[in-house]
Amino acid sequence: MAERSWSLGGALRGLFTTPVVDDEMWDDLEAALIGADFGPDLTDEILDHLRSEVDRLRITDPADVKRLLRETIEERLAAHDPTLRLSERPAVVLVVGVNGVGKTTTIGKFAKFLTGYQRSVVVGAADTFRAAAVDQLATWAERAGAGVVRPQQQGQDPASVAYQTVERAIADGTDIAIIDTAGRLQTKAGLMDELAKVRRVVEKLAPIAEVLLVLDGTTGQNGVAQAQAFIEHAGVTGLVITKLDGSAKGGFVLRVQQQTGIPIKLIGQGEGIGDLTGFTPHVFAQSLVP
Amino acid sequence: MATFGTLSDRLTQTFSALRTKGKLSPADVDGTVREIRRALLDADVALPVVKDFTGRVRERALGDEVNKALNPAQQVVKIVNDELVTILGGEQRRLQFAKSGPTVIMLAGLQGAGKTTLAGKLAKWLKNDGHTPMLVAADLQRPNAVQQLQVVGEQAGASVYAPEPGNGVGDPVRVAKDAMKVARDKQHDVVIVDTAGRLGVDAELMKQAASIRKAVDPDEVLFVIDAMIGQDAVATAQAFQEGVDFTGVVLSKLDGDARGGAALSVASVTGRPIMFASTGEGLDDFEPFHPDRMASRILDLGDILTLIEQAQKAFDEDQARKTAEKFATDSFTLEDFLEQMQQLKNMGSIKGMLGMLPGARGMKEQLDNFDESELTRTEAIIRSMTPAERRMPKLLNGSRRLRIAKGSGTTVTEVNQLVMRFEQAAKMMKTVAKGGMPQIPGMGPLGMGGGPGARSARKAAKKKGKAGSRSGNPAKRAAEEAAKAQGGSAGGAATGSGFGLGGGGAAGNQAPSAEELEALQKFLGR
Ligand SMILES: Nc1nc2c(ncn2[C@@H]2O[C@H](COP(=O)(O)OP(=O)(O)OP(=O)(O)O)[C@@H](O)[C@H]2O)c(=O)[nH]1
Ligand SMILES: [Mg+2]
């Protein structure tokens, strides 16, 4: 294989030291976007846009093309409002996503973030399916200084755990209730319906403030299908992108945002309890096009 | 944003434009290769791998083997598939067991790839095979990973060595080392070491993984990778190859709908065999990896290849060319029609053929309504005609039609319908031969024999409205169909047979067994 240790940064750095705007530059640019998981369609779309801008503005310096690209990406990322809406009391947050993307970890970090701002938090272990999932969440709750509602028995209906969590938050006057759910592939109709049921049951007690869909930053084009299915069944209001501390760039999220209009609200960058940040289009664009 | 449809749809279009050409020009090949490139990228195959791959395909496609083929464009797709299967299945092999002492299997991979669940699946699978596996809890990082392994071990009926509580407490290298002694003492013949997920860029943790490897001297190091991963698969696989030098790959979460291009990336960049597929959350959702199924899945090609192969077997190439000429020049007769039909019969069930066509996506209902006995009747009608009538259907006046109906045991209406359909079909094939879109995309000159059945089937489907949306996967459809046939509900002719095992491309013409169907369903996970 010719290109062994390929990286977007490297490709673009190399690319933008090329002094002229030529075919090779465009090829490198394409490779950079594809390599960052933008996917072939969006890559074509962005490149077409750039080409016409380069023509229109008579750009001759590749450095300007780079700036233009970063701006284009930033602009698109900024098209949606990343604000978390947590004003109801209790503010109920439901966390959903496919298996192993980082839901439980994100809840741990998020709870810590909130308790850091003197908000009281209770987490609900509605993943009653996966082995030791309840214990895992309880460990995070303890680290974050949050309360936890566990199922009374193994395999209990997740909707009832979610209900009890909100019930408890109301009774205790807790500010925020975050509900963990079991990972599920978006193709499993039965499991997707289960999520809809969790929603319905919780809404009998209180409106749901946010439904956060966690997407693994290493994901490829399947991320779009994931988002579409979870939006349909769980009414997603925001995205969380995790594992951006690795070598993956997460370019697919731009496609997700464009196609669904759902904003990115949080970014996970590690396994530590402090490794969670808000979403800043400028920073994200910068990391995509360094 | 526009959706571009599946590769089969796009290629079908490319093909129909190329169909009549005897030879492919370099420009034709480039067009096809471009579609394949796009399909691979859509499937998340890493760009360097795609470039390498399409370069090789292009070279072969411009070679002799293609230009001599019945349908050069389809031959290109066949090349693509062959190359894919070669890379994916390059070094198919089974687990390597130790000659003496316990066999050690170490698991490694990114966070959330599915290692712990796989540990349980492996344990159960090995236990069913008469082994006495022991699981080792060497993920001391992720909260409650130790408990998870304990639960999973219990479900699998395997013992678990978990001396440390985890959650950041304990030394995984030490645990791994001690485990070897424990396994020997307790006479476990297989040891499965679960390790913490780690990033390829995390030098410190990669070093730790290398130390674990050194401590247990494994017979197999399995790299577990999520089928949904994108372009990063290459960098990650390389990091793990350098870090722990894995011996095999397990593709996880294949029960989703990710096309799984990572499989191709990892196999071609590391040269390590993909050994297993993990296909669900249950401990039994685990199976040996099938390169041919994976190739079809990555390309999303349905069973177009099986179809091409069967067509190539059944059709004499020269004759096919002659037929194409006849279509183009309007000299196609009922006699030719009859001959075509007989050839189709040689190929097995028509329904089966239709079922394998990617162009037949969403045609489940049509397939249900396809009545093969109609073909037999059609044959009888044509056989009752004189050679002159077969060549010149215009001769068929009222009294001749009555005679034919009597001779074939049918009615005049049926004879009328046949003649009408023949004329329509001949017209349709003429369009096809000239490069237009066929009625049944992807069938080429084959479409002919399917004509009558497919037509009435289409009518039936119209009555019922559009077929189900997501039975697009031919293999899945095949499974449904065959299951139905087994249940005896599909009317009339011996249907299920030709459906074969679509997705596997494995079993040619016999009905899949219940187990095969189950495995297939699992594999497809829909
Ligand atoms: N490097 C890194 N790892 C992460 C991040 N977020 C989560 N992880 C790890 O990913 C793995 C899976 O995380 P979980 O939080 O258990 O994921 P989940 O979605 O709850 O998983 P299931 O409940 O099993 O579906 C764990 O090993 C986490 O430590 C992140 O931002 N960066
Ligand atoms: Mg979880």
Automatic annotation (TrEMBL), chain A:
Q: How does it sit in the membrane?
A: Peripheral membrane protein
Q: What are the record's GO terms for cellular component? A: cytoplasm; plasma membrane
The AAA+ ATPase domain covers 89-266
Main location, first listed in the record? membrane
- UniProt GO MF annotations: GTP binding; GTPase activity; signal recognition particle binding
Q: Where in the cell is it found?
A: Cell membrane; Cytoplasm
Transmembrane parts of this sequence: none
Q: Domain named Signal recognition particle SRP54 helical bundle: which ranges? A: 1-77
Q: Where is the SRP54-type proteins GTP-binding domain?
A: 90-290
Binding positions for GTP? Answer: 97-104, 180-184, 242-245
UniProt keyword terms in alphabetical order: Cell membrane, Cytoplasm, GTP-binding, Hydrolase, Membrane, Nucleotide-binding, Receptor
Task: Report the record's Gene Ontology biological process terms.
Answer: SRP-dependent cotranslational protein targeting to membrane
Catalysis performed (reactions): GTP + H2O = GDP + phosphate + H(+)
Q: What is its EC number?
A: 3.6.5.4
- Give the protein family: Belongs to the GTP-binding SRP family. FtsY subfamily.
Q: What does this protein do?
A: Involved in targeting and insertion of nascent membrane proteins into the cytoplasmic membrane. Acts as a receptor for the complex formed by the signal recognition particle (SRP) and the ribosome-nascent chain (RNC).
| Subunit and partners | Part of the signal recognition particle protein translocation system, which is composed of SRP and FtsY.
Q: What is this protein called?
A: Signal recognition particle receptor FtsY
Species this chain originates from: Microcella alkaliphila
Automatic annotation (TrEMBL), chain B:
Q: According to the lineage, what is the superkingdom? A: Bacteria
InterPro entries for the chain: AAA+_ATPase, P-loop_NTPase, Signal_recog_part_SRP54_M_sf, Signal_recog_particl_SRP54_hlx, Signal_recog_particle_SRP54_M, SRP, SRP54, SRP54_GTPase_dom
Enumerate composition-biased segments (Gly residues): 488-507
Q: Where is the SRP54-type proteins GTP-binding domain?
A: 273-286
Keyword Oxidoreductase appears in the UniProt entry: no
Q: What's said on domains? A: Composed of three domains: the N-terminal N domain, which is responsible for interactions with the ribosome, the central G domain, which binds GTP, and the C-terminal M domain, which binds the RNA and the signal sequence of the RNC.
NCBIfam families tied to this protein: ffh (TIGR00959)
How would you summarize the oligomeric state and partners of this protein? Part of the signal recognition particle protein translocation system, which is composed of SRP and FtsY.
Name of the molecule in the record: Signal recognition particle protein
User: According to the entry, what is the taxonomic lineage of the organism?
Assistant: Bacteria, Bacillati, Actinomycetota, Actinomycetes, Micrococcales
- Protein encoded by which gene: ffh
